[in-house]
Amino acid sequence: MVSVNHIRGASGTILRNAQEAGRLTDGRAMTYCVGIWTRDGLVMASDSRTNAGHDQVNIARKMHTFVQPGERVFILLSSGSLSCTQSIITLLKRDFDQGKGLAQAPSLYDAARVIGEQVRRVSDMDRDALERDDFKFNVNLVLGGQVRGESPGLFIVYPQGNPLQASEDSPYLQIGETKYGRPILDRGIRFHRTTLEEAAKYALLSLDSTMRSNVTVGPPIDLLAYGVDEFEITRLRRFAASDPDLIKIGMRWEQALRQAVGRLPQIRFRARRPAEPSQLPAAETIELVEPGVSEPAGELQPQAKPPSS
User: Which domains does the chain have, with CATH numbers?
Assistant: First the structure.
């Protein structure tokens, strides 16, 4: 039986394009969604904040799943205009329930193309009216999933409807406010070595870093993990702002960062005595010293003058 499950309860070339995803009309970015692809499967995560201001914060689900048990699983993350993304999801759901569209896509690439067709359809309906009032047609989607007979994969679908696929060298995709959560992914995610459990931690930390630096991104946080050839969704969780596990992740990460900085080579600033009294002011050196190395006695000796010719 074909069914659609919407998660219940509570951002090189890829980066440049993703930075346009999830922006307010004045150019400020909001929303953050990330998909991570490893040899073990997929991890998908999204925030739920759709509007942020001095007196208004709205929440809406940005993760949607389409499941045909034993045959196909699609996870869709959305950013941009909420009204436009809702229209796209509604059209995809209607066709899926009727056994069309995503329910018939023979591959994940074809599924990305199906989604792109609906993006263009909504664009044809709404873009002119939006742009007359200075609103951009601003819809970006991340598609993760698997169709029986092929491996899982990850795509981004742009506002023009064209898809771009993640690769083993770049195994994650972001939409929305991407810059704060990107460094930890660049340093940590490796397609062949990162487990699903580790990828889930990286996703949460990426979101935590983004929420810490940008108020327009916020909980609840939806987190989903999908293993290769499972063809069903069994690992998903929504983290509210008050969730003790979400709070613990943020606190432990901050503590670990401070401890890591303490273990780095120490930086010392030391005055270098000039070779002659007229050479003022004295220069300073910047030295990197491994922790535990004792401070040498006295000041640094002056540099020797080159022999006169």
Answer: 3-242 (3.60.20.10)
